[in-house]
């Protein structure tokens, strides 16, 4: 079923009666600072162009110093100061980290690991998503905040908790066990249905009653794989249920104030099924931090692209990213000149209508004191704050972009959370497979060719796309397989890869040969996998080299075109890349990991066969990323330099809103140009 995504955007303050523009701000933690700093903060916020802050995210212990003691005076004062300064407040429910008095009185709210260890307080997010005791205290706090600030003019949005599941997604406590059983009863109704779904005939695991079931705690060997997959589903749903519980209080007491929570669509953060959560918030928000490496900028773009499509194409809120270095990587590098603005504007290019950082003022103490901020330890007389202020001016110039949507591409990458979960379980053909990396490699190949591609979660309608890449589509329910066959035969061009079409939604292998229900569509059959050792490679006769995986492919349809074959090893002479015409479309299969470089040539050929081309001049392709936001009477082309050398934009025309001049321009190293152009038909 297509996903239905609600959308209510916060009413952000606008200067001098102007129409609201893009949001700009940060997490604000005034309780870390003396009162005399607060007015200076507001003055500097106005100087930087800040119009929204997230407030009180980690303030539970300050707001509620004891079970029956409340201190709202400081928060009242800060709310009033921000409102007087023309700054809206995304007010947090402050439930992210329980205070010491609560964990001392109720240690039963602390999470338990798979090995039975109790997680101690002293960091953050030390609470069980299924704890009824925690839920009671959290909702009491939410109620108190909502009742007090319901009518405050600074309040523009509610910020539920913070990064739900960042540290407590998997809890194996007795509370979790009880909630897991309830979830399983709802999913399966009968114990016989569960036994069938879990394949409990294997290893004498058959259950007689739901009360016998535990979370997949540390076991003597590999826990039941479907039990593991269901526990991942349950754990995401348990946090979603907590989100709903806080939201219900807020909607009852402040029905006109939109509600959000900050997702973490970034890197290998995979425990929360955000495409499933999107319908629970009034607007989607995301936190993103870059990771060093050759695909760092591509990953930022990939994540922002996916967030925009999780949001159903509507504007979304970049709740956190960094002005410069973070504090939690093995080596934390400062951003180079231009990267602060480039990273921010690339999120805007993919649909963000608000750009915020963690945090406003860099902490002097605590675990994140070396994490950069809008006002660094060096103070406002610093390169970082000057870059922050320049970005604020740029965002004001981009006010016409506000409310526009990303123009859909002709190609897309299908992103499937359940395949991500299931393909990386234990006792598989290889433990080296990384689902998200394969998807990112395809995205990098699109970028290298200068071809726009959307990253869409499963459940997104794909009829508008000409080419769809479904990498490692490991979990393939029959209904999705039928949809893909129909879409292909109606003119779509499908590309899928190794370890796709292997299991159904219960993690049961499709029988009769791989890739299961896609065999006939692809015109191939695979009897056995041939994964590669770390030092093995698989040369192809088209010049490519595979790693990680190979398949022993048998072509079953004479219409199949073999695009490349293996030249050595166990699969020597066997097809490596295939393509079969199907109805008005085609279905292609890539049986090895080629990496972004190897995929670029393969993708170029597949795009040509599908008739999908770049909108950029040839000399710009691969050097600059193009993203388009579409308004009612104009398109806005965002061109982002992917490298460290200037990129001439000869042949790219439009009126520059930021980063350029009328007509031909040069895209600076790490630079961004935004051009207003006539709306496409």
Tell me, rounded to a whole number, the average pLDDT: 96
- Kindly provide the name of the CATH class of the largest domain: Alpha Beta
What share of residues is helical? 25-40%
Count of strand segments: 27
Number of helices: 17
Question: Main β-sheet, in a few words?
Answer: 9 strands, parallel
User: Given the C-alpha coordinates, what overall shape results?
Assistant: globular
CATH architecture of the largest domain: Alpha-Beta Barrel
Might you state the CATH topology name of the largest domain?
Answer: TIM Barrel
- The CA-CA distance between the termini, in Å, is 29 Å
The low-pLDDT segments are none
Fraction in beta strands:
15-25%
Domain module count: 3
* CATH-assigned homologous superfamily of the largest domain: Glycosidases
- Order of the strands making up the biggest sheet: 5-4-3-2-1-9-8-7-6
Oligomer: single chain
Structural class: alpha/beta
Radius of gyration, taken over Cα atoms and rounded to an integer in Å = 26 Å
């Amino acid at each position: 079923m297509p996903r239905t995504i609600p959308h209510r955007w916060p009413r952000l303050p606008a200067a001098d009666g102007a129409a609201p523009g893009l949001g700009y701000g940060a997490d604000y933690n005034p309780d870390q600072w003396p009162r005399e700093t607060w007015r200076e903060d507001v003055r500097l916020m106005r100087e930087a162009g800040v119009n929204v802050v997230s407030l009180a995210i980690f303030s539970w212990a300050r707001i509620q110093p004891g079970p029956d003691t409340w201190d709202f005076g400081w928060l009242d004062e800060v709310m009033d100061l921000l409102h007087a300064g023309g700054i809206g407040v995304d007010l947090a429910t402050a439930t992210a980290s329980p205070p010491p008095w609560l964990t001392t009185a109720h240690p039963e709210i602390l999470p338990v690991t798979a090995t039975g260890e109790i997680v101690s307080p002293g960091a953050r997010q030390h609470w069980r998503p299924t704890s009824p005791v925690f839920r009671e205290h959290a909702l009491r706090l939410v109620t108190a905040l909502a009742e007090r600030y319901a009518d405050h003019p600074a309040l523009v949005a509610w910020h539920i908790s913070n990064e739900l599941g960042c540290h407590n997604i998997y809890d194996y406590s007795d509370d979790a066990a009880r909630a897991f059983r309830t979830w399983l009863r709802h999913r399966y109704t009968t114990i016989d249905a569960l036994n069938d779904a879990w394949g409990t005939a294997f290893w004498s695991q058959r259950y007689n009653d739901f009360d016998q079931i535990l979370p997949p705690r540390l076991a003597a060997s590999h826990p039941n794989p479907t039990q593991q997959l269901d526990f991942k589903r349950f754990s995401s749903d348990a946090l979603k249920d907590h989100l709903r519980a806080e939201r219900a209080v807020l909607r009852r007491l402040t029905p006109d104030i939109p509600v959000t929570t900050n997702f973490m669509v970034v890197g290998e953060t995979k425990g929360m099924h955000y495409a499933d959560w999107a319908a629970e918030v009034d607007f989607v928000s995301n936190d993103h931090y870059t990771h060093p490496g050759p695909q760092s900028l591509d990953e930022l773009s990939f994540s922002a692209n996916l967030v925009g499509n999780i949001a159903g194409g509507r504007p979304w809120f970049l709740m956190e990213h960094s002005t410069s270095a973070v504090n939690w990587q093995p080596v934390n590098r400062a951003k180079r000149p231009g990267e602060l603005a480039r990273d921010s504007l690339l999120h805007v290019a993919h649909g963000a209508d608000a750009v915020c950082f963690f945090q406003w003022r860099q902490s002097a103490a605590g675990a994140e004191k070396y994490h950069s901020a809008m006002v660094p330890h060096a103070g406002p007389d610093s390169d970082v704050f000057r870059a922050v202020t320049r970005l604020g001016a740029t965002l004001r110039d981009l006010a016409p972009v506000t409310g526009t949507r990303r123009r859909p591409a002709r190609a897309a990458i299908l992103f499937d959370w359940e395949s991500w979960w299931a393909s990386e379980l234990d006792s598989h053909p290889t433990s080296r497979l990384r689902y998200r990396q394969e998807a990112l490699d395809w995205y990098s190949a699109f970028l290298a060719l200068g071809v726009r591609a959307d990253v869409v979660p499963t459940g997104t309608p794909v009829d508008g796309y000409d080419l769809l890449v479904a990498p490692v589509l490991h979990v393939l329910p029959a209904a999705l397989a039928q949809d893909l066959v129909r879409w292909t035969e109606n003119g779509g061009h499908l590309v899928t890869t190794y370890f796709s079409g292997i299991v159904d939604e219960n993690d049961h292998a499709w029988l009769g040969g791989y890739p299961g229900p896609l065999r006939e569509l692809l015109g191939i059959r695979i009897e056995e996998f041939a994964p590669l050792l770390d030092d093995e490679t698989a040369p192809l006769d088209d010049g490519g080299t595979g790693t990680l995986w190979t398949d022993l492919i048998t072509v079953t349809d004479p219409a199949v075109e073999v695009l490349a074959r293996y030249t050595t090893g166990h699969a020597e002479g066997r097809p490596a890349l295939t393509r079969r015409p199907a109805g008005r479309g085609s279905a292609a299969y890539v049986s090895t990991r080629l990496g972004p470089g190897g995929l670029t040539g393969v993708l170029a050929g597949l795009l040509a066969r599908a008739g999908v081309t770049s909108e950029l001049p040839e000399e710009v392709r691969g050097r600059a990323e193009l993203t388009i936001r579409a308004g009612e009477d104009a398109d806005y082309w965002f061109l982002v330099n992917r490298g460290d050398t200037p990129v001439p934009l000869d042949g790219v025309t439009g009126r520059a809103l930021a980063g350029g001049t009328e007509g031909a321009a040069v895209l600076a190293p790490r630079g961004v140009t935004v051009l207003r152009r006539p709306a496409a038909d």
